[in-house]
TrEMBL record:
Pfam families: HTH_IclR, IclR_C
Keyword list, A-Z: DNA-binding, Transcription, Transcription regulation
Keyword Oxidoreductase on entry: no
Domain (HTH iclR-type) ranges: 13-72
Name of this protein: Transcriptional regulator, IclR family
Organism: Williamsia sterculiae
Molecular function GO terms recorded: DNA binding; DNA-binding transcription factor activity
GO BP: any one term: negative regulation of DNA-templated transcription
Domain IclR-ED: 73-241
InterPro entries for this protein: GAF-like_dom_sf (IPR029016), HTH_MetabolicPath_Reg (IPR050707), Tscrpt_reg_IclR_C (IPR014757), Tscrpt_reg_IclR_N (IPR005471), WH-like_DNA-bd_sf (IPR036388), WH_DNA-bd_sf (IPR036390)
Amino acid sequence: MRKTTAPAAVSGIGVLDKSVAVLAAAAERPCNLGDLCERTGLPRATAHRLAMGLETHRLLTRDAAGMWCPGPALNELAASVHDAVRDAAVMVLPRLREITGESVQLYRREGTERVCVAAMEPPTGLRDTVPVGSRLPMSAGSGAKVLLAWADPPTVRQLLADSAFSERSLLEIRKRGWAQSVGEREPGVASVSAPVRDRDGEVVAAISVSGPVDRMGRRPGARWAADLLAAADAIHKRLLL
């Protein structure tokens, strides 16, 4: 059975939606034509034609193994995009990485997925690498819990059925102000996340610290939640400037 990577939204313009699905599949991890067909559900001829077209426009490129992956034109286009939350986070994440010695990320929810919009890795040692642009499910992980805990009720009802956590746990997260997970999204990985609020106080992102369970421990919130909440507040204050 094919496992498809659906775009976050559907425009109704067939070739555009299929092209976005191809880009999303390649962003998930480098892929060959067979992988591309499996992840998108597209016929081989269609997937190949779209991938070649995207490669011509430098939206896709090939790695050393000949696998398709995101191309340089995506970075060039993204460089001109103003994202106040991401820009504020980029000023705060280095200090959080320095304090924790672990990988740090900023996530936003797009439809049924969360997208990594900023990330920084420790210079050495085993790490939990989440490249910018990565799309992760909303069904597991502390970042997903935070984004869903403050989502609107229809979204919560839609996504909760397939989640590794319950409505009661989301209520506890809202009361506590942060979430943690151990081995939910990926075996051996632990994480802590906190909500990031915009100028109006609305939760628009989740800031996270993640790393190996051996270092983070089985109760990572007890160790890093205070620093994470301080970082989230620092981002919020920058948005008020």
